[in-house]
């Protein structure tokens, strides 16, 4: 037995040697007859040919699999994932793939030869090259930032993050409604907490700086024309003001924009923070805290003057006209820089599904296609009462096409965010929306900036 194994091992070793050591091969060729030499050359050629063909095939396949534009993601992997995993498992799975860099990307980025998509924000303090962002809630713990930038988002919002880690609501808490391309979620701010998420952001910065030996000037997104936003929440039993202040001082140095989320429907009492007195005290407190942020805590800002992050508040779509008017007055009175309209809805709008479907009885916030008319209406109402032309308005809710994005822009949104549309369409969504926006703009002979707020000027 041992002898046999030795014989096999010797044989195997000789074959490996002959493959590895070209010299031995050459020596053997020289001592062969010319017929043998010809035969061996042919074998060698065909095996090299086979190897080259397999390498080419493998590279083409991996190019296809990792190309965000490939339709396999939307038509094969997406539906497959929805078939084999429940919504929450699929969510965690995709974020993990992204965190390991195993996610498709747009190899050539988004093409904007005529420079029609760019937009200045926050009173010209910031610039976005593509007016499409990833909304909060997908990357709650800042693990997938660069994967999201790599599929074309110019703006990535991580969070919501709570000061202390908390598990959120019991499962199941995330439900798909595929016919309506919508979902209901009641995650309830499941968060790894400030310190854990902050450490993810710090590690990302350290890795980036190492590449450049520390000699680099960049925003937290790492690229001009892109924005990294951090969305702040409060713990279930946390303090209505202090939880946000802590978020501002801790994440301020690592964020290009800070978002104050007072509109998740899944944290009891949170939406009450949208009421006039409470909202004004909160916004005043966070602006004061923002003005004291120590930018130098982030090694990216060492030795540079840096820019304090603008503050943005995110509101619900389920508000009456007078409530939205009151929010507009409060926001105008405060010194914040922008507003996101909107979060998910607690109402149950449907498109194709029957409202009798038991899924609509699930508590939580609904997002996706049926939310669009509600969030767009809320945005229009806000724009009607807003008296500050420098305030940046951000549209969100049911956006999945270029046409949707343009409607929000004309209503007053400087850029838009998506979440549920991405969950259903996959990595090609941003590129597709951008192409559709460009086509529409071409027809109108305008740039994105020229259509922002166009409906308000009528
Ligand atoms: C699963 C899920 C989790 C979300 N979590 C958050 C969150 O933590 N913080 C937040 O501000 N918004 C959160 N949102 C709301 C989205 O950011 C967005 O406002 C909403 O989904 C509407 O956009 P959409 O129709 O494009 O999805 C979440 C949405 C979904 C679907």
From TrEMBL:
This entry carries the following GO cellular component terms, namely: mitochondrial inner membrane
Topology term for the membrane: Single-pass membrane protein
Q: Does the keyword Flavoprotein apply?
A: yes
Q: Which UniProt keywords apply?
A: Flavoprotein, FMN, Membrane, Mitochondrion, Mitochondrion inner membrane, Oxidoreductase
Instruction: Name the catalysed reactions.
Output: (S)-dihydroorotate + a quinone = orotate + a quinol
Q: How is the cofactor bound?
A: Binds 1 FMN per subunit.
Q: Which PANTHER family does this UniProt record tie to the protein? A: DIHYDROOROTATE DEHYDROGENASE (QUINONE), MITOCHONDRIAL (PTHR48109:SF4), DIHYDROOROTATE DEHYDROGENASE (QUINONE), MITOCHONDRIAL-RELATED (PTHR48109)
Cellular localisation? Membrane; Mitochondrion inner membrane
Supply the InterPro entries for this chain.
Aldolase_TIM, DHO_dehydrogenase, Dihydroorotate_DH_2, Dihydroorotate_DH_cat, Dihydroorotate_DH_CS
Name the coenzymes or cofactors required: FMN
Citing just one GO molecular function, the answer is: dihydroorotate dehydrogenase (quinone) activity
The entry sums up its family as follows:
Belongs to the dihydroorotate dehydrogenase family. Type 2 subfamily.
Instruction: Name any Gene Ontology BP term.
Output: 'de novo' pyrimidine nucleobase biosynthetic process
- Tell me, what's a Pfam family for it? DHO_dh
Q: What is its EC number?
A: 1.3.5.2
Dihydroorotate dehydrogenase catalytic domain: from which residue to which, for each copy?
128-441
Q: What is this protein called?
A: Dihydroorotate dehydrogenase (quinone), mitochondrial
Metabolic or biological pathway = Pyrimidine metabolism; UMP biosynthesis via de novo pathway; orotate from (S)-dihydroorotate (quinone route): step 1/1
Does the keyword Membrane feature in the UniProt annotation? yes
Gene3D superfamilies listed in its UniProt record:
Aldolase class I (3.20.20.70)
Name the enzyme's class: oxidoreductase
């Amino acid at each position: 037995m041992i002898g046999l194994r030795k014989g096999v091992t010797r044989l195997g070793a000789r074959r490996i040697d002959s493959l590895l050591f070209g010299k031995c091969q050459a020596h053997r060729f020289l001592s062969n007859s010319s017929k043998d030499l010809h035969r061996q050359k042919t074998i060698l050629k065909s095996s090299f040919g086979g190897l080259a063909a397999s390498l080419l095939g493998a590279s083409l396949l991996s190019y296809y699999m990792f190309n965000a534009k490939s339709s396999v993601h939307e038509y094969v992997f997406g539906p497959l994932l929805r078939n084999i995993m429940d919504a929450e498992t699929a969510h965690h799975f995709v974020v993990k793939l992204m965190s390991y860099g195993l996610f498709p990307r747009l190899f050539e980025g988004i093409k904007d030869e005529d420079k029609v998509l760019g937009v200045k924000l926050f009173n010209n303090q910031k610039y976005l090259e593509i007016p499409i962002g990833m909304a909060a809630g997908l990357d709650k713990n800042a693990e997938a930032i660069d994967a999201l930038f790599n599929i074309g988002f110019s703006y990535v919002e991580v969070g919501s993050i709570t000061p202390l880690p908390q598990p959120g609501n019991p499962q199941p808490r995330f439900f798909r409604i595929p016919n309506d391309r919508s979902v209901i979620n009641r995650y309830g701010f499941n968060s790894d907490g400030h310190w854990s998420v902050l450490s993810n952001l710090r590690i990302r910065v350290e890795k980036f700086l190492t590449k450049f030996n520390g000699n680099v000037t960049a925003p937290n997104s790492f690229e001009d024309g892109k924005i990294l936003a951090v969305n702040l929440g409060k713990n279930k039993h946390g303090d209505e003001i202090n939880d946000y202040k802590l978020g501002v001082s801790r994440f301020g140095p690592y964020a290009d924009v800070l978002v104050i989320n007072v509109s998740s429907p899944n944290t009891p009492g949170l939406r009450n923070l949208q009421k006039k007195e409470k909202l004004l005290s909160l916004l005043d407190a966070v602006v004061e805290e923002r003005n004291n942020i120590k930018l130098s805590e982030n090694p990216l800002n060492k030795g540079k003057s840096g820019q304090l992050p603008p503050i943005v508040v995110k509101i619900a779509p389920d508000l009456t006209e007078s409530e939205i008017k009151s929010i507009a007055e409060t926001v105008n009175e405060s010194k914040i820089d922008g507003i996101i309209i909107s979060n998910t809805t607690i109402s149950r709008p449907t498109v194709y599904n029957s409202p009798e479907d038991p899924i609509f009885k699930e508590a939580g916030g609904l997002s996706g296609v049926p939310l669009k008319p509600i969030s767009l209406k809320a945005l229009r109402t806000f724009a009607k009462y807003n008296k500050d032309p420098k305030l940046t308005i951000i549209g969100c809710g049911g956006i999945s096409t270029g046409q949707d994005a343009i409607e929000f822009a004309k209503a007053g949104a400087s850029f838009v965010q998506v979440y549920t549309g991405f969950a259903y369409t996959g990595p090609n969504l941003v590129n597709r929306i951008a192409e559709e926006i460009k086509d529409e703009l071409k027809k109108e002979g305008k740039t994105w900036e020229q259509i922002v707020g166009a409906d308000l000027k009528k």
